[in-house]
Amino acid sequence: MLGTPEAGHTLGAIPCAIAWLFRGISEQRQRTGARFSVRVSCVELTTGQQQLRDLLAAHANGK
């Protein structure tokens, strides 16, 4: 999902999706002057226990 950061051509799905999102935002902002707000969540699903864990909880609100 993450790939290897050393080489741009081996980035995984997550970094590629984020790059695509911000490239699209930049293009729209240049064309229309629109403003955007982006929120990100990342959860882990443990199938055996059917539990969700917030992987970004330690980074929320400047913690």
From TrEMBL:
Family matches, as InterPro entries: Kinesin-like_fam, Kinesin_motor_dom, Kinesin_motor_dom_sf, P-loop_NTPase
Domain Kinesin motor: 1-63
SUPFAM superfamilies registered for this protein in UniProt: P-loop containing nucleoside triphosphate hydrolases
GO MF annotation, one: ATP binding
PROSITE patterns the record matches: KINESIN_MOTOR_2
Compartmental location: Cytoplasm, Cytoskeleton
Gene3D superfamilies linked to this entry: Kinesin motor domain
GO biological process annotation, one example: microtubule-based movement
Alphabetical keyword list: ATP-binding, Cytoplasm, Cytoskeleton, Nucleotide-binding
A GO CC term attached to the entry: microtubule cytoskeleton
Family: Belongs to the TRAFAC class myosin-kinesin ATPase superfamily. Kinesin family.
PANTHER family: KINESIN-LIKE PROTEIN CG14535
Protein name: Kinesin motor domain-containing protein
